[in-house]
């Protein structure tokens, strides 16, 4: 694990209609690590993820202060391209959402958006992405059937493959396994462990135990503030803040 | 760079959307430009309340036509709304699914039949029936009302049905739990709750009746006099325009546009009333 | 005196079922009457010859062509404007004063009587723009008339596309435009098509607006600038001036068959729309 900082969040304040939902947030995400940002509901975890790929500008009444640096460059500086950012920073949503098209076209959607038309190139991209998402063997014979016919776990891996097809650098996952059975959850957690060799991964787990299983480092977020962060094992066994310990052991939730 | 690519479609769509607004403005502007000078010349009260319509003599009073429109529309509402409401209750509450799935498209079909076909059918069946059994020339306010009642059925039925279906099921279940019969539930709970939607459908039905031209031309008789009974022939604002536009010119033509202005105003008021009724939920 | 609620229930049932039966009887009697009197006179010559002797003999081919031409112009013009406006309302704006005004305009346009559209078309297209009585004037007038229908059905169709699809597309680097073309339009297509088909139905049935703008010439139209008659207009003239009862019935029967086909088409599209999982 390298010590290089991939993403630096500096003094982030976020407001919905003048309500402050993220307060004075400072955090560094290291390259090629899995960071889990966890906390009780409505702590701002989803909002935090969305600031990282600028997916909040669709929401009316939202305002942001502070800086977010990707590889040292502020992603909110006036000239920077949102499109480029979203290709570099991919997001997997809570509800698996295959697009209403065949599996192949789902994966090829992103590359086609960026202009890749060559059939052979697309086929190679799709296969690589599905391999990395550990879905290739299960679907290689039915690439041209609808993505909506897959099971929940398969659909979510499809969504992961979809962003892998764009060769991102960072992968954001917002409660990716909620609603999935334990077997599918295990498969996805396993693929995350393999993916961190090539990508930086930030995940909001849907329970604390998942953070413990999957993450290298964790960050505990409560009511919009960062309470503490550090290596998973350290934070879980020796939390510096009482609230962290209480949440992890389930005294509140 | 990509942002520029987004601006072009956005600008295009804005221009396109503005067209909807401009078209309405355009219609209003042009009709007003043609019609207002005549109203100014003849005088507003003389125009709207004048009893004589005789273009060749330079007289442009449209009151007989207003009365014609009111009578015919009133008749259409009295005849058509009760039947339409019962039919919408039928579709929403009484009909088994298979039957309602057949009846609904049938009513849609009713809506699609050209108005001239309705007028023709009315001319062949309704007009002689009135003449033979009730007297008068047959071409009458009654004939117009009957035809219009049929023509507004689809509008009132479909919107009322939607309003009834949109009610939360708990409303019905609550009434049943208190021991009400089906009909009692409908009468005391469902219809009052769907009141605003039903009212809106009636207002829209009125709008259709007021605006209908071709069917009415064929069965109304088109006498320019004030109708004194429902068996008398009459003219409505729309049929006035429809009949005379073919050969009107100059001032006469302007008077027809002025009639159009009155129609526009009536429809705008009705539309606003319908939207208000729906909002009062 | 209290009437037994069971008795009122029974009476109510009788009344309501009777109402439904009355409506159906009326519908079927009209349609069956026209079709039975008209279909026998629909011959190949009827469909392919132009009317002669003011319509007493010959066929209605020029009216058929007139109907198709006017409807085509109307659809070609109204569809891009209608669908485009719907997209603007759903994708490019938040609810604001402007969207309220645009929506109010569309709703108001929907209620305007067709004769007023005829007046407008006459003064604007025929006279002001000097297009004369022509297919173009008639088609453009009809385009304005069906615009609100297309806007309304398209907007509804676009709104039922799950918002998550947009999110996914944006998160993969898609622009609004790309999202629209690749996801929204394909998904909303059945609903949009339904609106267009309903618009076609209105164009075919319309008489008042067309007679004032496309004229009532009997000859086969030769260009967009030729005056023309539509089947509805032709039927009206035949029937109201008592020219030929036979030909009138035949024309009406043809019209009804056409409308029936259009309605069936629209219903099939709606079922496909619903089957896609809404």
Strand residue content of chain C: under 5%
Number of helices of chain C: 11
Per CATH, the superfamily of chain C is MetI-like
Mean pLDDT of chain C: 87
Q: What would the principal axes of the Cα set say about the shape of chain C?
A: globular
Element-level helix/strand string of chain A:
EEEHEEHEHHHHEHEHEEHH
Q: Could you give me the name of the CATH homologous superfamily of chain A?
A: P-loop containing nucleotide triphosphate hydrolases
Terminal CA distance of chain C: 50 Å
What number of domains of chain A?
Answer: 1
Strand content of chain A: 25-35%
How many helices of chain A? The count is 10
Q: Work out the count of structural domains of chain C.
A: 1
**Class from helix and strand fractions of chain A:** alpha/beta
Query: Percent of residues of chain C in helical segments?
Result: over 70%
In spatial order, strands of the major sheet of chain C run 1-2
Distance between the termini of chain A: 32 Å
From the 3D structure, determine the CATH topology of chain C: MetI-like fold
Compute the average pLDDT of chain A. 90
Number of strands of chain A: 10
Describe the structure.
The complex is a heterotrimer of chains A (253), B (281) and C (278). Chain A has 253 residues and is of the alpha/beta class. Chain A has one domain: 3-Layer(aba) Sandwich (Rossmann fold), CATH 3.40.50. In chain A, 36% of the residues lie in helices and 26% in strands. Chain A contains 10 helices and 10 strands. Chain A has helices at residues 45-52, 82-88, 103-113, 119-132, 136-139, 152-164, 182-195, 208-214, 232-237, 242-249, and strands at residues 5-16, 19-30, 34-38, 62-70, 73-74, 89-92, 170-174, 200-204, 217-222, 225-231. Chain A has a 6-stranded mixed β-sheet with strand order 6-7-8-3-9-10, with helices on both faces. Chain A has a 4-stranded antiparallel β-sheet with strand order 2-1-4-5, with helices on one face. Chain A is globular and about 55 Å long. The model of chain A has no long low-confidence stretch (mean pLDDT 90). Chain B is mainly α. Chain B has a domain at 68-240: MetI-like fold, CATH 1.10.3720.10. Helices cover 79% and strands 1% of the residues of chain B. In chain B, a hairpin with a 4-residue loop joins strand 1 and strand 2. The longest helix of chain B has 41 residues, at 2-42. Chain B starts with a helix and ends with a helix. Chain C is mainly alpha-helical. Chain C has one domain (44-275): MetI-like fold, CATH 1.10.3720. Chain C contains 11 helices and 2 strands, in the order H-H-E-E-H-H-H-H-H-H-H-H-H. Chain C has helices at residues 5-38, 44-48, 61-92, 97-111, 114-128, 135-159, 163-171, 176-205, 208-213, 231-240, 245-275; strands at residues 51-52, 57-58. Chain C has a two-stranded antiparallel sheet. In chain C, helix 5 crosses helix 6 and helix 6 crosses helix 8. Chains in contact: A-C, B-C. At the B-C interface, helix 1, helix 3, helix 4, helix 5 and helix 6 of B face helix 1, helix 3, helix 4, helix 5 and helix 6 of C.
């Amino acid at each position: 694990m390298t010590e290089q900082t991939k993403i630096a969040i500096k003094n982030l304040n976020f407001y919905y209609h003048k309500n402050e939902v993220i307060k004075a947030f400072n955090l560094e995400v290291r390259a090629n690590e899995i960071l889990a940002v966890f906390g009780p509901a409505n702590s701002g975890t989803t909002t935090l993820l969305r600031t990282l790929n600028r997916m909040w500008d669709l929401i009316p009444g939202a305002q942001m202060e502070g800086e977010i640096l990707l590889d040292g460059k502020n992603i909110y500086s006036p000239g920077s391209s949102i499109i480029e950012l979203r290709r570099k920073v991919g997001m997997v949503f809570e509800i698996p959402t295959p697009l209403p098209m065949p599996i192949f076209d789902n994966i090829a959607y992103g590359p086609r958006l960026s202009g890749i038309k060559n059939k052979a190139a697309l086929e190679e991209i799709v296969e690589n992405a599905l391999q990395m998402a550990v879905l290739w063997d299960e679907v290689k014979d039915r690439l041209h059937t609808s993505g909506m016919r897959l099971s929940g776990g398969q659909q979510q891996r499809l969504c992961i493959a979809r962003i892998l097809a764009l060769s991102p650098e960072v992968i954001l996952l917002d409660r990716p396994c909620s609603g999935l059975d334990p077997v599918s959850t295990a498969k996805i957690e396993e693929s995350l462990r393999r993916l961190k060799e090539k990508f930086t991964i930030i995940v909001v787990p849907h329970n604390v135990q998942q953070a413990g299983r999957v993450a290298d480092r964790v960050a505990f977020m409560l009511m919009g503030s960062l309470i503490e962060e550090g290596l998973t094992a350290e934070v879980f066994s020796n939390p510096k803040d009482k609230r962290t310990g209480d949440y992890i052991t389930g005294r509140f939730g | 760079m990509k942002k520029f690519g987004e601006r072009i479609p956005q600008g295009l769509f804005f221009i396109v959307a503005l067209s909807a607004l401009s078209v309405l403005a355009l219609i209003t502007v042009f009709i007003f430009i043609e019609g207002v000078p005549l109203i100014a010349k003849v005088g507003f009260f003389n125009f709207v309340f004048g009893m004589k319509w005789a273009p060749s003599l330079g007289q442009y009073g449209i009151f007989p036509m207003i009365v014609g429109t009111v009578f015919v529309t009133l008749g259409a509402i009295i005849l058509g709304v009760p039947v339409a409401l019962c039919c919408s209750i039928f579709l929403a509450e009484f009909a088994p699914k298979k039957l309602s799935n057949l009846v609904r498209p049938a009513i849609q079909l009713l809506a699609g039949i050209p108005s001239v076909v309705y007028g023709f059918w009315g001319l062949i069946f309704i007009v002689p029936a009135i003449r033979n059994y009730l007297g008068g020339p047959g071409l009458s306010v009654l004939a117009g009302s009957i035809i219009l009642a049929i023509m507004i059925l689809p509008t009132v039925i479909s919107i009322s049905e939607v309003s009834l279906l949109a009610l939360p099921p708990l409303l019905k279940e609550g009434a049943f739990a208190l021991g009400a019969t089906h009909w009692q539930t409908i009468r005391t709970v469902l219809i009052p709750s769907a009141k605003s939607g039903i009212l809106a459908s009636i207002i829209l039905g009125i709008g259709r009746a007021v605006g209908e031209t071709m069917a009415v031309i064929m069965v109304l008789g088109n006498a320019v006099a004030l109708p004194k009974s429902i068996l008398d022939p009459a003219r409505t604002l729309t049929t006035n325009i429809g009949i005379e536009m073919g050969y009107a010119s100059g001032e006469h033509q302007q008077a027809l546009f002025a009639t159009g202005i009155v129609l526009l105003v009536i429809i705008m008021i009705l539309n606003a009333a319908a939207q208000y009724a729906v909002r009062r939920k | 005196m209290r009437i037994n609620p069971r008795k009122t229930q029974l009476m109510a049932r009788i009344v309501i079922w009777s109402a439904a039966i009355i409506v159906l009887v009326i519908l079927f009697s009209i349609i069956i009457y026209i079709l039975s009197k008209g279909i026998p006179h629909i011959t190949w010559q009827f469909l392919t010859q132009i009317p002669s002797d003011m319509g007493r003999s010959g066929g209605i081919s020029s009216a058929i062509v007139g109907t198709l031409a006017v409807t085509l112009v109307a659809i070609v013009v109204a569809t891009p404007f209608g669908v485009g406006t719907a997209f603007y309302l759903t994708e490019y704006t938040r609810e604001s004063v402007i969207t309220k005004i645009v929506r109010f305009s569309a709703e108001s346009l929907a209620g305007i009587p067709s004769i007023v559209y005829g007046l407008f078309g006459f003064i604007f297209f025929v006279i002001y723009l000097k297009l004369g009585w022509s297919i173009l004037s008639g088609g453009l007038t009809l385009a304005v008339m069906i615009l609100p229908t297309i806007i309304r059905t398209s907007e509804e169709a676009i709104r039922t596309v799950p918002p998550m699809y947009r999110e996914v597309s944006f998160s993969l680097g898609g622009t609004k435009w790309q999202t629209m073309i690749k996801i929204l339009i394909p998904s909303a297509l059945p609903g949009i098509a339904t609106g267009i088909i309903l618009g076609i139905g209105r164009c075919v049935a319309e008489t008042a607006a067309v007679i004032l703008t496309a004229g009532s010439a009997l000859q086969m139209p030769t260009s967009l600038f030729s005056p023309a008659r539509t089947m509805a207009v032709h039927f009206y003239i035949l029937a109201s001036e008592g020219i030929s009862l036979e030909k009138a019935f035949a024309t009406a029967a043809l019209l009804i068959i056409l409308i029936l086909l259009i309605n069936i088409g629209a219903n099939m599209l709606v079922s496909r729309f619903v089957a896609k999982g809404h």
